[in-house]
Each structure stands twice: as structure tokens, then as C-alpha cells.
Design a protein that fits this description.
The structure holds 2 protein chains of 2 kinds.
Chain A: H1 2-26, H2 38-62
Chain B: E1 2-3, E2 8-10, H1 16-36, H2 48-57, H3 63-96, H4 105-135, H5 154-173, E3 177-178, H6 185-189
Antiparallel strand pairs in B: 1-2, 2-3
The chains are: A mainly alpha, B mainly alpha.
């Protein structure tokens, strides 16, 4: 059970990394306040969200304060 | 970890209120700083301090004054939303969603993430379009933040990232667990309680 839970957290994290990489590679670089591609920047934002959620799940699961 | 008389212990403080205020302050600060750094990862910058300052002082006030006054307002809002979560939403979620009833770090974390999503919807559907858009004369913020100045829908997802950071930190830091044993919540609730 515990290993399956860990796999879910790892999957969430990896999904975030993939979305982040695709977003970063497909969009032109943002120059100052001028936005790049909507799709690329959206993928970066969603990817980072998944990465942070995955790390958070792991930290909650590992319960490091105990 | 401090233990209260209520049978529940918190990561910070001895009461839900004190724990909520400190956890919400930290969550707000981490998310606010992350929003200011969004430009570094090719996202639109989210400067909620300035947005709040403009709401109160207008667009022509001194920028430093606007940032400081807006920051005080923004941090106050973040702490109040955190207290609402800790004292009202957190117990209610445990009551209405049975799998989240047990006071475990993972359940507390999931509740924090859910609260972050709720605040993202409130921010994108109401706060941005109804308050920030008129400030700039209209047409700057699209419905549900599908447009934000020169940015399109990426602003909506950057806002999701911002509120997820807030929810993750709030859920990890405001973490009440049973105080039946001093050793570990696992010993109190049994292994595999997740």
C-alpha cells in the first residue's frame, strides 16, 4: 500500500516535470513583460503546479517532523 | 511539536488559532515571494502587494507606499483566509468527506490543497475581474482570468500555481494530529491509516 502511494506521488511529480519540459521547450522566451506563447507558458505553470503538489504529498507522507 | 489540552497537537503553537495564524503567514509569504519570481520561469509576474495597493491608493500613488500598504493588506487577507480554513473549513471537510476525517499529515495536506483551489477560483472568478479590471478602466482582465493585460490564459494557470503554493504550505504547516501518544500519530491511529 505504502509503495503504491509513493508511486502515485512520484507519478504526479514526473507528470509535472514532463509538462514543464514540454512547455519550456515549445514556447519562445519571454522578453520583459511581453508574453510568450499562451500554451507554452500555461504548460509551464501547470507543470510546476504538479511538481509542487507531488513534492508536498511526499513531504506529508514522510511526515518529517515526527 | 507542541501539545494542547484538547487531545490534538499542532506543528506550531498549542491552539488551532495560533497555529493557523503562523501557518497562514508563512504560506502567504512563500506564495507572495514565488509570485514575484514567476518571471524567472517564464510566467507572468504576480505582484499581489501592488495590486492590493492600487486598489486602496489608486494608480498614481508613490510605488513604495503602494507596495508597503498593499503588502499589509495582502498579508492580512492571507492570514484571515488561513484562519477561516483552520477553524471552519478544515473540520468541516473532515465531517463531510469521510476519507479526510482522520487527522493525519496527508489528510491535512489534501485539505490545504483543496482550500488553495477554492481560493484560486475566488481570485480568478471574482477578485481579478470585478476589482482589478475596473481599476485599469476595463478590458484588461478577462472573465475567469482568461486574459490579464498582455497575457492570455497563462495568467489563469499562473494564478493556479500561486494558490497551490499557498495551499501546499498551509496544509503542511497547519497539521493537527492526535495527541494520544507523544511518539507518533502512527502509533495512535495504526499503521496504514492513510
Amino acid at each position: 500500500m505504502a509503495s503504491r502511494t509513493l508511486l502515485v506521488y512520484a507519478g504526479l511529480f514526473l507528470l509535472g516535470l514532463v509538462l514543464l519540459a514540454v512547455g519550456a521547450l515549445t514556447q519562445p522566451y519571454r522578453v520583459g513583460a511581453t508574453p510568450g506563447s499562451e500554451v507554452g507558458e500555461s504548460l509551464v505553470a501547470i507543470g510546476l503546479t504538479f511538481v509542487i503538489l507531488g513534492i508536498g504529498y511526499f513531504l506529508a507522507w514522510a511526515n518529517p517532523t515526527q | 511539536m507542541e501539545e494542547s489540552d484538547s487531545g490534538v497537537k499542532y506543528l506550531i503553537g498549542r491552539s488551532a488559532g495560533k497555529s493557523a495564524v503562523i501557518a497562514a503567514f508563512v504560506a502567504t509569504h512563500v506564495a507572495t515571494m514565488a509570485g514575484l519570481w514567476f518571471g524567472g520561469v517564464r510566467l507572468p509576474q504576480f505582484n499581489f502587494n501592488m495590486l492590493n495597493g492600487w486598489l486602496v491608493l489608486g494608480l498614481t500613488a508613490d510605488p513604495v507606499q503602494t507596495f508597503v500598504i498593499g503588502g499589509i493588506l495582502h498579508y492580512t487577507s492571507g492570514i484571515i483566509w488561513g484562519v477561516v480554513f483552520a477553524l471552519i473549513v478544515h473540520p468541516a471537510l473532515g465531517r463531510f468527506i469521510k476519507p479526510l476525517a482522520a487527522l493525519t499529515p496527508t489528510n491535512n495536506y489534501i485539505k490545504g490543497v483543496l482550500w488553495g483551489l477554492v481560493l484560486w477560483v475566488i481570485s480568478s472568478a471574482f477578485w481579478m475581474p470585478l476589482l482589478i479590471d475596473p481599476l485599469f478602466g476595463g478590458g484588461v482582465v478577462g472573465p475567469f482570468l482568461t486574459k490579464f493585460g498582455l497575457n492570455g490564459v497563462q495568467a489563469l494557470f499562473a494564478n493556479l500555481l500561486w494558490h497551490s503554493i499557498y495551499g501546499v504550505n498551509l496544509g503542511l504547516l497547519f497539521s493537527p494530529t492526535p495527541a494520544a501518544t507523544r511518539g507518533s500519530w502512527r502509533a495512535a491511529s495504526g499503521v496504514g491509516v492513510r
